[in-house]
């Protein structure tokens, strides 16, 4: 075999290896691109299971996903937000407002913040206290709404000045498995003046 033939066969072997390597790289790129596309466009529902703690809470785990929220969890969240909004004194009204606003939907933030600021100014000016006693709650997990019926009591110092039958409606948005308060509205059913004095 001549030198020319040896060089030619060596070049042919190298070209074959080069083509094989390029083919493997191209195949790898195609497979990676397909996997990346599958991951990007795959919609997988993630469900978070929450286990409540406490004797008076629900006794079973509750779940929240991108498209569904457990009815008991919705009730617990609504109850806590009701407490922040309605059980206020001059000492805690600003703290409660800030805590509640952490759960408000961005497009409702301005309106709810303004309403809470007006209420806070009134509470401080009158040095008043309000307490809400929920008597019943209607929860609609599909509509993401809760309606609480109860009595709101107003105090100046230790003297109860007013008692109102009130309905509070909370509406929520569910974004990435997180509940956001969209609206908080109150309807006074009946207001009665109380002359009795109660100790807090």
UniProtKB/TrEMBL annotation:
Keywords attached to this entry: Membrane, Transmembrane, Transmembrane helix
InterPro entries (UniProt xref): Pilus_assembly_TraE
Transmembrane segments: 20-41
Transmembrane found in the keyword field: yes
Protein's name in the database: Type IV conjugative transfer system protein TraE
Native organism taxonomy: Bacteria, Pseudomonadati, Pseudomonadota, Betaproteobacteria, Burkholderiales
């Amino acid at each position: 075999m001549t030198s020319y033939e040896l060089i030619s066969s060596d070049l042919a072997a190298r070209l074959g290896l080069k083509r094989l390597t390029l083919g493997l790289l191209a195949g790898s790129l195609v497979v990676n691109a397909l996997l990346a596309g599958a991951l990007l466009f795959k919609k997988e529902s993630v469900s978070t299971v929450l286990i409540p703690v406490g004797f008076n809470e629900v006794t079973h785990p509750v779940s929240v996903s991108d498209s569904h929220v457990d009815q008991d969890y919705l009730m617990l969240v609504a109850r806590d937000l009701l407490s922040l909004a309605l059980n206020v004194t001059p000492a805690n009204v600003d703290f409660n407002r800030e805590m509640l606003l952490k759960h408000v939907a961005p497009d409702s933030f301005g309106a709810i913040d303004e309403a809470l600021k007006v209420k806070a100014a009134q509470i401080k000016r009158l040095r008043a206290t309000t307490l809400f006693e929920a008597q019943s709650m209607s929860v609609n997990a599909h509509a993401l709404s809760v309606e609480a019926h109860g009595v709101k009591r107003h105090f100046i110092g230790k003297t109860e000045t007013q008692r109102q039958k009130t309905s509070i409606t909370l509406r929520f948005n569910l974004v990435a498995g997180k509940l956001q308060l969209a609206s908080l509205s109150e309807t006074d059913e009946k207001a009665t003046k109380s002359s009795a004095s109660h100790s807090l």
